[in-house]
Automatic annotation (TrEMBL):
Residues 14-240 form the HipA-like kinase domain. The keyword Transferase applies. It comes from Streptomyces scopuliridis RB72. One of its GO terms (molecular function) is transaminase activity. It holds the Pfam family HipA_2. This is Aminotransferase class I and II. Keywords: Aminotransferase, Transferase.
Amino acid sequence: MLTEVTATRYVTPLREGGSLPGIVEADDLGTYVMKFTGAGQGRKTLVAEVICGQLARRLGLRIPELVRMQLDPVIGLSEPDQEVQELLKASGGLNLGMDYLPGSIGFDPLAYQVGPEEAGRIVWFDAVINNVDRSWRNPNMLVWHGDVWLIDHGATMIWHHNWPGARASAAKPYNASDHVLASFGPDIASAAAELAPLVTEELLTEVTADVPDEWLVDEPGFESTDALRRAYVEPLLARAGTIHERITLDAPTTNGPSRAPGWLADRLTPGARTTRRTANEQSVKDGGQ
């Protein structure tokens, strides 16, 4: 079970994401990025964060620690933003916290190198969970102390938004052509050989058990939270065994501007992706604007 803490101070909202997460301090003296049950995406986003985040951690990928976080909306009374006030009021009770990584910076494929082995592990994992939100447009990766960390898994397992079609949806291939790590030559075969045997029914049962019952109740078509947890296990187990055979890595749809800040772009050295760097040179110098 995830550790449970209580939010003691609302620090500031993070406006990069549509769910408007916020930085909060907790009674364990830790600082977290809180994701709210009252956000527009609903509690299924938090369910996906827990299942995919905990699965990644069990497979040895770097994911900030997740915690259950109790919220009393009164801690946001001094927040001047009306939107934030309404979000806090709608999210009283149990929410999700992700360990805040101070000093981390967003991953940019022009500024950082990732080896084929690590790239393969991440692409394979994203294929298993059907992550549609780790593209060059929105990497959802941080660099902290020189290592790559994975964040934001709310846009995964799209089949849980339509359970009657879950079996067919989970059987679909995974197009990784726009994946932010596609250009690093990900070694997917080695990743599958290493990680697929680890994704067992027992492991997935343990991972889904970390989802709080209150985020699973009243799901249409399921008599109990245990039945719903089982519904999450089955597609993930099936995908882990065979998805490496159905991953597509073609040319990306289009190049996007670098998100590297100007001070970092000045330190870039020419490499294997010289053509891409040249195409984005002016954007990099402008700090990705």
